[in-house]
Amino acid sequence: MKYPTMTEFVLDQEKRFEANKEGWAVDYIDSIFRYASFIKQPLKNEMFVPCDKEGNVLEEPKCEIFDKNIECNCNEEQGHKCHLTNHKYKKAKEKVLFEGFSFQMNGFYCSEEEVIQQVREGEFKIFKSDFTRKVETIEDLLNAGANLATAGRSLNEILTQTC
After folding, report:
1. Which of 8, 41, 48, 109 is deepest in the core (most CB within 10 A)?
2. What is the spatial distance between Cα 154 and Cα 160, in angstroms, rounded to a whole number?
3. Percent of the chain whose pLDDT exceeds 90
């Protein structure tokens, strides 16, 4: 699912309300306010790729059983470190909001459709074929035409977790 612009989100809520006429208008208005708060968030590294608490990009663990739900076959000391690394990475991956990005050198985050660079803390640039634009919030990215997919969760789940 793609993140909609604020206008698209509001119009979608209006359609849902008109079609269902169930619930209270307050519920629809609340979802609009939550989405507005969500897209006004300043951009952070962890929105694109898994990062630690300081915002440093984490590398995907190299343990052979990383994606399997089985015990690690490393020796006891390695196994404990492997488990902690896997757990830390999985928790960080749950915070990623935009699907398909990878970290490249010099602060560049790339997906198949987008190239975004962190210039400094809280300041990013999006590169399109016909322009480059400074962006600071999720809304700035959407208004610049970024095609951002949700990272394996519904928009409702994301709004519930982040707002």
Report:
1. 48
2. 10
3. 31
